[in-house]
Amino acid sequence: LNCTVKLFYDQKFNWCDPSIEWSKDGHVITNGSKYTCSEETRFNNNASEKFLSSLLNVSVADAGDYGIFSCLIRKESATFALQRENDASHMPAVLGAVLVLFALLLAGLLYVKCRLDLQLWYRNKYGEFEVNDGKLYDAYVSYVSADDDRKFVNFILKPHLENRYGYKLHLDDRDILPGSEPSAELIMNISRCRRLIVVLSKAYLEQEWCRLNFREALWQLLDLSRRPIFVMFESQYRELSHPAIQLLKAQRKSITLLLWTSTSMTPSSEFWKELRLLLPRKVHQRCVMADPQTRLQDDKDPMLILNPDYLDCRSDPDPEGDLESSQWKKNRTAPLDARCHIHFVCLGRHSLCRIQHVDK
User: How far apart are CA 43 and CA 53, in angstroms?
Assistant: First the structure.
């Protein structure tokens, strides 16, 4: 620590030359093992000013060597604060890295968990509609007429896709390729559908054409449909060692293989989300539920309309028409503007009513 003092100097008062004293935390410092002090004196050119410098060397060994140092001369003092330099801490960097890693892991988990939902939202928001393409059905479903397969298609797959999401399916339980070449009917049916779904069960693979020429049939299906969808039951997929399964695994880039698991029954399962992503984007139309006969009348039953014209019981404006008999004319006593009491009973909201009227 360097303390330099400028003093006005006069040789007449040389005998009272002051000196610099050092103190630490209010205690006077003397030369020792920890502190050494050296002084230097200089004058200006005309010896009118004197510069007195004192250099205090501090040997820092522990925390007790730090503190407040002061140099004193006469009634003036200067203060120095000697404190430990803050060590470079890696804690902020470590915390930042941990937070970034946690954010990445959270984003990864959210993507894995919500990946299909995000893709469905994006497809339904910005995807292209497959309309005006001459197709009559959204998917052609090929399955075998076995009990389990028929129940799966008719009671699970078809109701879920058609009733819940509005898709239109064409079901076919016949051999999709009974011969070496696809029939004209098969080509026509598949050409009317936007997608091809094959329920590839154990019973399906036991068909003759699957055992003999599944490879050739797969190439023909790839020519007929864009990226066909094969649905397999997980239990059968793990147990079967059919060559067709190995072929489908090798053709992952050309086909899509979906597994029906024990958790696929719920509407929010990944199976339905993946299947919906593979199917065309649907045009959501507002569904108007009403009786076809009354839809144009704001869903009002004609029999319940107040004051309908066909319930007007006023007398015939032309009583002398062909149906008017002279005997009825003589016996008629009711005025021409008579009204009727209407009695009718309706059995339902849109059912017809029996109408009886009595002239007054």
Answer: 11
